[in-house]
Design goal:
The structure is a homotrimer of 208-residue chains.
Chain A: H1 6-11, H2 14-34, H3 39-61, H4 71-86, H5 96-118, H6 123-145, H7 158-173, H8 178-199
Chain lengths: 208, 208, 208
Amino acid sequence: MPLPDLMMVRSVLPWLDIAGIGVFAISGALAAARRELTIVTFVFFAAVTGTGGGTLRDLLIGAPVFWIHDNRALAICLLAALAVWVTPRRIWSDQAILWFDGIGLAAYAVFGSWKALAYGVPPLGAAMMGVITACMGGVIRDVLAGEPSILLRPELYVTVAALTAGLFVLLMLLGAPLLPAAGLAALAGFALRALAIVRGIHLPGYRG
Amino acid sequence: MPLPDLMMVRSVLPWLDIAGIGVFAISGALAAARRELTIVTFVFFAAVTGTGGGTLRDLLIGAPVFWIHDNRALAICLLAALAVWVTPRRIWSDQAILWFDGIGLAAYAVFGSWKALAYGVPPLGAAMMGVITACMGGVIRDVLAGEPSILLRPELYVTVAALTAGLFVLLMLLGAPLLPAAGLAALAGFALRALAIVRGIHLPGYRG
Amino acid sequence: MPLPDLMMVRSVLPWLDIAGIGVFAISGALAAARRELTIVTFVFFAAVTGTGGGTLRDLLIGAPVFWIHDNRALAICLLAALAVWVTPRRIWSDQAILWFDGIGLAAYAVFGSWKALAYGVPPLGAAMMGVITACMGGVIRDVLAGEPSILLRPELYVTVAALTAGLFVLLMLLGAPLLPAAGLAALAGFALRALAIVRGIHLPGYRG
């Protein structure tokens, strides 16, 4: 298996990381908007939601937490909060949080698995890392906002993260080149989540 | 004080760790079952609940997070989720979460203190580590499931973790051999929690 | 910029750290009191609330978690819990949690930024560290107690943390001596939070 080297993760595909940070940050700011909070609270929600999943990932795999020594992540969160703040609410439909969360979910499921592989985490753990970190941004946002966790929504969510991360790790195991594998897995994941949001598709629930 | 060496923790008494992971994982899957979630969400709840307390412990004491480089923990969580999924609900009484949580509480209170001692944490901190990590699995599960935290139930819970961890650390300080000390503390802790569940015994609450 | 050296942080101004631990611990014990919990649960809430913000800070900046190898922090939490337990409730007005939380907010916003600077975190990250760790003690307490997060209260809260941490980091950047800078920022922050509690002053909320 060709382990993605960390330099490449940082230089070739930073957009997945930025996408994850930015869209989760927007979803956090939208949660603050729904509760009519202030601009400072917008920034706080954007920063915690945008960086939460990646922070947990870095703590778990023993990497330096990515935003501590690099101001760009916080700058993205600041811009995301301002963007939501200065625009009228009607631009952001009720489902906007879901859509931005969905992009973040797909992006982080791939990027989280990838960084874990780059740190030498074995495949199963790396896939799980993609899942946990992709889902935790939204969970942290919902806990802070006092809303029911997105995990409890009926349509596919954790499943999307699991399939996305699993597909990416599998492609890497099979020797696929990094860039197409990452793009394919992220797009497939987002498409599945989009179907879940639009059509409400879901796995059967436990009926006992 | 004879510090338990890490090799012994890993080889002689892995059952405490496995018991903690497995029963917390089952309690997490049961929380998912109560909300009629899907098989993937079962696995996610099982994994986060089963590994949550130990993950926090490892982060706090600066140990590598135990399940990142060892697939066995995740495999146990997967099996626990499948076990709950394939069995009819009537097998799992309403109190089943409480009982599995209780076993996990006792097992993790001992194992958490033990691993902390093995990493050179002083006695008071080690006991606190047992308490926090034993309680946090259930707290994480309840927060994810949107249920009132188990900490707020009237009967003995944190107290059981504190007495279990305290008894184990005290026995180690007194020079007791590892295996009997661990077994005695875990059994005493589980017995006390069982009494608390069955008889509802509790300390007096604050009345101001 | 004269970086505060870690020795000085530890020796000259330990009172900010102790204040943060102690008053957050009291606010945690008061949350337990409001729910008429037991003495052991008081101690648990006091310990988790008192050490939560600083624990997150240390994990994020890669410092050893401060209370693991030093029993004083846990001892302060124990004393705080006992102090609340043995006193009648009428001493603690309904707003007491807010006031103790406010002192903790100001103290931790300064101390958190300071420790981050001492660990080489750049200014923006250090200020953010002050904000997140100052706010997270209260957030953890509210999540554990099942109450709406203090972040969602209408009057200034995150804003106070941001201004306090920002003022302190700015003063350090301008070359101000450590002790006056810390004292000034903490007092200004507490004064602002006091105004927010008493007068309910707040920034305008998002109206879309």
